[in-house]
Design brief:
Radius of gyration: 13 Å
Structural class: mainly alpha
Largest sheet: none
Distance between the termini: 21 Å
Number of strands: 0
Shape: globular
Order of helices and strands: HHH
């Protein structure tokens, strides 16, 4: 059964897409995964930079997803 107001995993990724303005999408995803404690390495230069503002935005999205049970 499908519950109302239940986010699917792809919805969690869609929410993370709003942080793509801070860098390369691959870099944003790898940064988000690293912030969750998984050591997957960084993207190669010059695509490996995420500004502090971007890190804060990613952390905010991760916290929102965690509150919704999406980890």
């Amino acid at each position: 059964l499908k519950r109302r107001n239940q986010l699917k995993p792809q919805d969690a990724v869609a929410i993370l897409q709003r942080t793509y303005k801070y860098g390369n999408p691959h870099t944003i995803i790898k940064t988000a995964v690293a912030l969750q404690g998984h050591n997957i390495g960084k993207c190669r230069a010059p695509f490996n930079y995420v500004p502090e503002e971007g890190l804060e935005a990613i952390k905010k999205v991760l916290a929102e997803n965690a509150a919704k049970g999406l980890n």
